[in-house]
């Protein structure tokens, strides 16, 4: 039987990808950030997941304003790298895990989560920056990746509670997959940041710290944060943190926080990263 | 009071709701077209001619030609779409964030290094002198 062993959350700031791609990761500005991810690189080498599910939001790359799925899952064999206006990142394509992805879609829809099925799309920095932070710069990514996309760009976006419940549905789906696979799930985006308007640059470390604390202490409290509170308190793009709740919902109730990293700034953002492990 | 009226109380912020998504459809789809290198080249060759292919309003086209990043958002643009226009110009998200917040890039970068824009005093339009 397949099982989820751990969850990882991380910001997915595009400038971090650009810094790595342009050989700037050792510079004074970037080094503390990359140092914060040394641990997860070592951890994931030991954990050796067979598959990673990466929850992220597309940033107007695969989805324009023509079609806006609230939740979508990548069921294809392979996903290309998006050109977001400055050319493709020089990284390998992302290989999927169609059997498990289709199984999750089947199980989630039976569970009344009507998730959109994607066979072909390019993935953007929301998915690729976390891969780079976990795996560095390999020739090929070390395991298949299942992209799960969440609309947090065009309102209405899903509630934190709905995201948390989708996480539970994904956990149930994985558990009922008839192959012995070790799965790690990532929730990406955040933490507090605002990219737009006169209030750009907003950071709320208190909000972020409470959010990180409550992932283990009181996830239910996090599921009750309304959109307005994310927008007001964590900046307009802080809403991405609802995606962390899909990761959290996919884990057991009792978990251990085994690593945490928080840093301001990376470009316009507060960088947050945490590893949560199921007890085994 | 519905959520969307409450969104309007957040200063210096354009929440991308249905009103903005409808108004900015063509503006945003124009930005999206800049994901293709050939389109970026044609746009750079003659911006006005390229813009005229999209059924945008004249004020939307003007905001684009002026690179008035806040005005684009006011007229229905979304930051992830307008970010593609910025990328076409060789500008980073931090560079346009500085422009939108009305300061130079070095001043903005220093604010971020000092911990970012504080939440205190920036929650509600009532806290801003010009009402956001």
Per the CATH scheme, the topology name of chain A is: Protocatechuate 4,5-dioxygenase, Chain B
Q: Which H/E pattern describes the elements of chain A?
A: EHHHEEEEHEEHEHEHHHHEE
How confident overall, as mean pLDDT of chain B? 95
Number of helices of chain A: 10
- Domain unit count of chain A: 1
Q: Which residues of chain A sit in consecutive blocks of at least 5 with pLDDT less than 50?
A: none
CATH domain fold name of chain B: Protocatechuate 4,5-dioxygenase, Chain A
The CATH H-level homologous superfamily of chain B: Dioxygenase LigAB, LigA subunit
Can you put this structure into words, describing what you see?
The complex is a heterodimer of chains A (280) and B (132). Chain A has helices at residues 14-21, 31-35, 38-47, 98-110, 125-135, 160-175, 205-217, 219-223, 227-234, 242-249, and strands at 3-10, 51-56, 71-74, 78-81, 94-95, 116-118, 122-123, 145-150, 182-188, 255-266, 269-278. With 280 residues, chain A is of the alpha/beta class. Chain A has a single domain (3-278), classed as 3-Layer(aba) Sandwich (Protocatechuate 4,5-dioxygenase, Chain B), CATH 3.40.830. In chain A, the strands form two sheets. Chain A has an eight-stranded mixed beta sheet with strand order 6-3-8-2-9-1-11-10, sandwiched between helices. In chain A, strands 5-4-7 form a three-stranded mixed beta sheet. In chain A, helix 1 packs across helix 5 (125-135), helix 4 (98-110) packs across helix 6 and helix 6 runs parallel beside helix 10 (242-249). The longest helix of chain A has 16 residues, at 160-175. The model of chain A has no long low-confidence stretch (mean pLDDT 97). Chain B is mainly α and 132 residues long. Chain B has a single domain, classed as Dioxygenase LigAB, LigA subunit (Protocatechuate 4,5-dioxygenase, Chain A). Chain B has ten helices and no strands. Chains A and B meet through helix 1, helix 7 and helix 9 of A and helix 1, helix 3, helix 8, helix 9 and helix 10 of B.
């Amino acid at each position: 039987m397949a099982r989820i062993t751990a969850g990882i959350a991380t910001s997915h700031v595009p400038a971090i990808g650009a810094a790595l791609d342009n050989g700037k990761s050792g510079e004074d500005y970037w080094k503390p950030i990359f140092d914060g991810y040394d641990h997860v690189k070592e951890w994931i080498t030991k954990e050796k997941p067979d598959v990673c599910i990466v929850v992220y939001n597309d940033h107007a790359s695969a989805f324009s304003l023509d079609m806006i799925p609230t939740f979508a899952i990548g069921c294809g064999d392979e996903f290309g790298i998006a050109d977001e206006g400055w050319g493709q990142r020089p990284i390998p394509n992302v290989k999927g895990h169609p059997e498990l992805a289709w199984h999750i879609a089947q199980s989630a829809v039976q569970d009344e989560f009507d998730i959109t099925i994607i066979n072909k799309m390019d993935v953007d920095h929301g998915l690729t920056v976390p891969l780079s932070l976990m795996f560095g710069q390999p020739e090929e990514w070390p395991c298949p990746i299942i992209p799960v996309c969440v609309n947090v760009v065009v309102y209405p976006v899903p509630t934190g509670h709905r995201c948390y419940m989708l996480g539970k549905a994904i956990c149930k789906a994985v558990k009922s997959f008839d192959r012995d696979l070790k799965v790690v799930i990532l929730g990406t985006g955040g933490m507090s940041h605002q990219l737009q308007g006169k209030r750009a640059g907003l950071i709320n470390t208190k909000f972020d710290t409470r959010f990180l604390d409550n992932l283990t202490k009181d996830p239910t409290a996090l599921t009750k944060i309304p959109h307005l509170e994310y927008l007001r308190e964590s900046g307009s793009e802080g809403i991405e943190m609802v995606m962390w709740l899909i990761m959290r919902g996919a884990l057991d109730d009792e978990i251990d926080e085994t690593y945490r990293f928080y840093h301001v700034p990376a470009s316009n953002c507060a960088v947050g990263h945490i590893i949560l492990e199921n007890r085994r | 009071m519905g959520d969307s009226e409450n969104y309007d109380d957040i200063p210096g912020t354009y929440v991308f709701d249905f009103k903005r998504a409808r108004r900015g459809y063509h503006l945003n789809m124009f930005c999206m077209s800049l994901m293709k290198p050939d389109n970026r080249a044609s746009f750079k060759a003659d911006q006005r001619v390229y813009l005229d292919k999209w059924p945008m309003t004249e004020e939307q086209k003007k905001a684009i030609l002026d690179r008035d990043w806040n005005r684009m958002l006011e007229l229905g643009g979304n930051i992830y779409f307008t970010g593609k226009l910025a990328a076409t110009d060789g500008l980073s998200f931090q560079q346009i964030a500085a422009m939108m917040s009305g300061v130079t890039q070095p001043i903005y970068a220093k604010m971020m290094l000092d911990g970012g824009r504080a939440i205190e005093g920036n929650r509600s339009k009532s806290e801003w002198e010009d009402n956001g």
